[in-house]
Amino acid sequence: MDPDACFLRIVDALRALAGQAVKHGVIIGLETSTPATSGRGGDGARLAALDHPNLKVVWDPANAVVAGEKAVPDGYGTLPVSAH
User: What 3-state DSSP class applies to 58?
Assistant: First the structure.
């Protein structure tokens, strides 16, 4: 699966999911991993750009390594800083 080819569909589905999470008072933790995303830090940053209080991205450095990224500092450096 090519994450870039289906990214907009993933974003639409996650927005809908986050809307449902609000109704149920839960926070969704979405781990970046293959095949939906590649697991790289930049993928986590792209998904975090959804910026919804009921959807948080969980970046797993092991998935970044499997995706061929040098997890630290390269992948980690692309992630947004969160106060939450």
Answer: strand
User: pTM above 0.85?
Assistant: no
- Across 47-66, average pLDDT: 84
Please state the domain extents for the chain: 3-77
Q: Which of 42, 46, 39 is nearest to 10 (CA)?
A: 46
Q: Which two tokens stand for residue 23?
A: 């109704």
Backbone angles phi, psi at 3, to 5 degrees: -55, -35
Give the H/E segment covering residue 5. Answer: helix 3-24
Q: Return the HEC string of 10-41.
A: HHHHHHHHHHHHHHHCCCEEEECCCCCCCCCH
